[in-house]
Amino acid sequence: MSMFNVFRKEIDWGGRKLVLETGKVARQADGAVMVTYGDTTVLATAVGSKTKSNFDFFPLTVNYQEKTFAAGKIPGGFFKREGRPSEKETLTSRLIDRPIRPLFAEGYRSETQVVCTVLSHDMENDPDIVAMIGASAALTISGLPFLGPIGAARVGYIDGQYVLNPTADQMKETNLDLVVAGTTQGVLMVESQADELSEDVMLGAVNFGHEQFQPVIAAIIEMARNCAREPREIAPAAPEVAIVKEKAEAIRAEVAEAYKIVNKTERQDALAAIRQKFVESLGENEAEIGVAGKVLKGLESEVMRRSVLDTGKRIDGRDTKTVRAIESEVGFLPRAHGSALFTRGETQAMVTVTLGTGQDEQIIDALAGEYREHFLLHYNFPPYSVGEAGRMGSPGRREIGHGKLAWRAIKPLLPKKEDFPYTMRVVSEVTESNGSSSMATVCGTSLAMMDGGVPLPRPVAGIAMGLIKEDDGFAVLSDILGDEDHLGDMDFKVAGTDQGVTSLQMDIKITSITKEIMEVALRQARDGRLHILGEMANALTGAREGVAANAPRITTITINPSKIRDVIGSGGKVIREITEQTGTKIDIDDDGTIKIASADPEATDKAVAWIKGIVAEPEVGVIYTGKVVKIMDFGAFVNFLGSRDGLVHISELAQNRVKNVGDVVSVGDMVKVKCIGFDDRGKVKLSMKQVDQETGRDLAADEKQTAE
Known about the structure:
Strand order of the largest sheet: 8-7-9-10-21-20-18-19
Helix content: 25-40%
Radius of gyration: 34 Å
Number of strands: 29
Number of helices: 16
């Protein structure tokens, strides 16, 4: 008899087999499920601490990790083991976290960890969707107060048709990469990149994905019926909460007045003073002081939300659709290849673009294989941007996530690499923040790239939408403030051009939203996006002609691939000499394409001539200028075409008979020679006597013409 009590659920999903299995691996976790889709397998585990934490927030951690053995690979680097999380691992951890976090029961504060480990990758099915399903299943059977399960799916758009969970090959053809997650009731999270698709197509994709993952939710529910642990009880709210809530009613009017202050810093100072005064009024009652922060946050949320729903007016006095004042400036930094300062209300991004060569591309060692990336976008959020003093270090999950969102928004508009062979690095420094710095980054990136001469066909803008939803109605807010994000129910970011959407990201803080709300949000976001594009046009309407004077110019030439080794030379000797002597950067592709980059046109011309000299073939009858490199009794060797030498036989040195080669030429002399043929071994035969050494005129041709 087996020592394992295994439960297995199998369904056909999107033309492939989806298998959920529990009871065999990681049995000491509260919940553990192995999920296999095709031949991609992920182990998902969920563990919740048995004791309640002292945090005033829910301490949930999600870790998605890819093991290289899953693809039959050994890690690179010196230590030969997996190290710091890759960008893909960080982004997928966020992807899993976002839809599950709102579904934990109110009042649950125990430290909880979800770990998703990729054990097998078939190079066809991306493990991220598999991991999301595994996390949902593990939490559902864990006994933790998780109000799921959720389902998740990837949606492609190929030839005008939606495709469920497109394979790696299909992803090369799709106009859309959209991940959607949610419950049976509605959608909780969307992440996407699109080729300027309409709002209707995007909404259709979200609805398609929501419909298609319903069988997955049903499978998880059936699994839970058979093997879920007993539900964990949640301690009831402390009696002090009700007492403090009652006392807080006395300051409701003060909080309402504070939320009428338009300036963010002044408003925060006023609210901080009200909170401090209230806490002091509680005396030394530690129990009441301990819950005061949570109660006051709830009061502030109620005040802000009711004001919007009842009056249609927001914190800063705007209505629900108005976008804050915008100021755009390009060429902001004199030495950057392209730069912009984009300010929207109290949110500001200083964005730069730097152009490099193929040598600057990022080599990404992904589980599915190594590839090179020539468009990089780095987002930084220093603490001074929100008026705080804080720790600065390597980028965190939020910075990586926001940077990738902006990257997705711009990526569909990039020129083809063969048309613009530069590596592009964008850096967004958020210098002020009060609502959607990621969308300010999109706007600033578009302006900075156009300022730098990157030929974007159209500018790109982004806007963040919010939601206030109560039983008696809802309001969708355009261009949300930070407080509207924190105290609202939705963060819905839409980026694109005047022709369509390029990126859509949605996070819901309530159990789900309706199709009607999404339709309103998308329509309102389009109006806001078009307004922002109009404001951006005041600074720049399109890409500048040519790149900045201090940016490298890239010249492309093509040679016969069989000549590549001649240009590189033994051990790279020749190519190294060319780059050192000319100061250029040179990239050589296997197909014979050579890119020469330099900010100095003369250096580029010199390198091009050098390379052409190496690969050029001598032509009979053509006159060249060369240098005498060696003298022998029977003639002189002349370097005349790159590194190529030819022999001027003693009989071809001069019109008169020559007894001693040294009487006519010396090593180092610059001479004019004519190619007159090749010997039996393919060596070049040259003549000096057939060329006027002063003018370079072909004397033999002159004699022939005279004779005729």
